[in-house]
Each structure stands twice: as structure tokens, then as C-alpha cells.
Amino acid sequence: MSRSQPQGFTPTGTISTPKDRRRVVFATVVGTTVEWYDFFLYASAAGLVFGQLFFAPAGPGIAQILSFLTVGLSFLFRPLGAFLAGHLGDKYGRRVVLMLTLIMMGASTTLIGVLPTYEVIGVAAPVLLILLRVLQGISAGGEWGGAVLMAVEHAPKAKRSLFGASPQLGVPLGLLLASGMLALMALIAPGDAFFAWGWRVPFLLSFVLILVGYYVRKKVEESPVFVELAERKEQTRMPIVQLFRKHSLLVIIAAFVFAGNNAVGYMTTGGYIQRYATDPKGPLGLATADVLGAVTLSAVTWLIFTWLGGWLGDKIGRRNTYIIGWLSMLVAIVALFPLVNSGSIPLLAIGLMLLTVGLGLTYGPQAALYAELFPASIRFSGVSIAYALGAILGGAFAPTIATALVESTGTTVSVTVYLAVMAVLGLVATLLLRDRSGIPLGPDHEAEQEVSPVRGLSKV
């Protein structure tokens, strides 16, 4: 082993002690939970309060659409975050990028918590809100690739999917924490008090969470794959150029794999169901705290099935796990709105929980699937950009599209059709890829990694 290699690493690029493995898993879970807490907190608040507080002069209907548009707007900046993080991550390491994205996300969220409303500072309020949301989008675009590569590149070969599920758990955990905090504040400060100050408290809590996340991540060593690349001085000078020159079709297909999951998931993480079910002028008018409680419960089942998806990915392969997930998701999509439209909180909760089965099974193995698609020298760029593009194609404007569909058709059937089409596109994209479970990830095997996993282009 090289003298400059971090203690605890073996030449094969895996961590040698269970203690080191636990540290990486814990750090990725904590860090991504904090990031997605911030991101989803905004989306939930957009469905519950931002329309009235920042866009009220546009009128109730348009104000809500504008509020959801700010959720989607941040996705347009995810590729910028992915490009920057991919370039920096492939040249300077995964760890430094993760520290930067964590700080940027936390600072943006905390500032939203003290932002004056339209009534106080006029048009400057929505402008500043949008700018802070853009910073959240850049941060989210850079966060995911670094987190999953730290987890997967540290993992034993036989447990990559399970290790890769650890940062994925940050999504349902972030939703659980965000919805739980908003539900708590809706109980502590109901009605006008929630609009006046209650919604701000969860945003201000982000400052404390960022300190915790930073402390935990600081103790994790750099990815062993990057350490080996750095020792050999084999970092690609322009990784993004190389990525699109050799693997542009793969990036697009991988993006569609995530787009289906993201579009469906953003019915709750994007705040649509919360707004639809609680809108006092809508068909249901359910209590905010009750709906947030149901969303929080669904985050628990999402967490369970994401872990299960990671575990299954190692047992039956990433691709097979995805296929089961897509089929489960299609069944749940058909059942979702009939259950929500019943007006019953228990049935609404069941509908959201059913949805999390497919969401978890198509999210748990994603980190391992993505990491095994791209060569080591451009892997950070590949996974980050594919993920960011998938987020734009999928969840970016899913709440806005759903709102517009119901406004124009008068029925949620149109939303069901939209979500089903997105899930089918994800299934087709999955079927176009070969399963590369267990492929060597180190720089010694770049030639094998360069062979396209897209069916019909080359043989493995």
C-alpha cells in the first residue's frame, strides 16, 4: 500500500474494518438527510404557505402555481450543480464537494426562515425566495453524486447496493423530518399563527442540523477509488467533455430511469398532495396537521422499502429489483387518487404508503446501478449529471403539471395518466440497460467499465 493512502484502506479499494464501514454509512445517511430535509421543507411550505405569503397579488389559483413553479425552478439549476460538483469531484475528490454542498444548502434554508413576506417588502420577497431556492437547487445537484459514490466506492463488492442505499435513505428520512416538523408546528401554532411564524421554525432548525452534518462528514476519509486515481495522477482534465463524447446516450437513458421515480415521488415531496388535500377551497379541505401526519407515516414506509430495495439489489440484481418496483408503482398510481379523494385520512395514508413500495424499490438500488454504469475517471460527473437531468425530466415540474392538469380537466384522472406514463418511461429505460452488478469499480478496470451497458450497442 502507498504511504499516502489513508489508513484502513486495502489495495482493492474497500474499507478493511467494520468500524470504518459504519462511519461511512452513518455519515452519508446523516448528511443526505439534512440536505433533503432542507429541500423538501421548501417544497412542503410551497404547497402550504408560500403561495399566500409571497405570491398573493397574483390571485389564489395563479399564486399556487407560481409557488410550485419555484419548486421546479430549482431543478433547472441542478445540472449546474451537477456539472460543477462532477468536475470538482472527479478532479479534487468526493469529500470536499460534500462539505461545500452541505453548507450551501443549510445557509439558503436558514435565510428562507428569516425572509420577509410580500406584505412587508413587496416584490423583493418572491425575488429573494427564488434566489435562495436556486442556491438549494445547485446544492442538491452536487450533493447526490458525491454521497452515493462515497458509499458505493467504499463498499464490499457483494454489498454495494445495500451500502448505496444509505444515502438514498436520506430522502425518506428528510421527508419524515420535514413533514414531522411542519406537522408539529401546525399543532403548536395552528391557523393564523402557522402562517405568521410557525412555518419559519423548521427552516431555522436547519442551522443546527448543518452543524451536525458537517461534524459527521468531516470525520470520513476520501473515497478509495479517488485516492487511487489521485496517486496515479489519472484524474481526467475535462471529465464532462469525456462523459458526453463517449457516453451521452447512456446519460440520457440513466436520466429517464430516475425521471419516473422522481415524478411520482414529487406528489408528496413536491408538496402537491399536501396542497390538494388541505386546500380549503378544494374538494377535500382536510386538516393540515392530519395530512402532514399521513405524509410523515408514508415517509416511514418509504424508508423501509428503500432499504429493502438496496438489500434486494444485491440479492437479485439492480435491474430485477427495479422491474419489480416499476410494476408495484403502476398499481399504486392507479389506486392513489381514489384513496385520496375519499376524504378519509386513513385511506389517504394507505394510498401514500402503497406508493412508497415502488418508490423504495426503484430508489434503493439506484446508487449502485448508477455507479456501475460509468468509468472511474468520470464517474462523479456521470452519476451527478444523469441524476440532475432525471430530476428535471421527472420531479421538477410534477406538482405544477399536476395542478395545471386538474385546473384544465377538472379531474385527477389526468394526473394518474401523467404519472403512469412517467413510470412506464422509467421501466423502458431500465429494460434498455444491462445489469452490471459487481463490475470492478477501480481505475485498473477502466477498459471494462468503458464498454457500454446499453443493450444493442455492445456486448459485455
Rg, rounded, reads 21 Å
Mean pLDDT: 83
Q: How would the global form be characterised?
A: globular
Level of helix content? Answer: over 70%
Main sheet record: none
Proportion of residues in extended strands: under 5%
**What structural class do you assign from the helix and strand content?**
mainly alpha
Number-wise, the strands total 0
Query: What order do the SSEs take from the amino end to the carboxyl end, as H and E?
Result: HHHHHHHHHHHHHHHHHHHHH
Count of alpha/pi helices? 21
Describe what you observe in this structure:
- This protein has 460 residues and is an all-alpha fold.
- The protein has helices spanning 18-54, 60-76, 78-92, 94-112, 118-121, 124-154, 160-168, 170-188, 192-198, 200-218, 224-232, 239-265, 272-278, 288-316, 318-340, 345-361, 366-371, 379-393, 398-409, 413-431, 446-450.
- The two termini are 31 Å apart.
- The model is unreliable at 1-16 (pLDDT under 50).
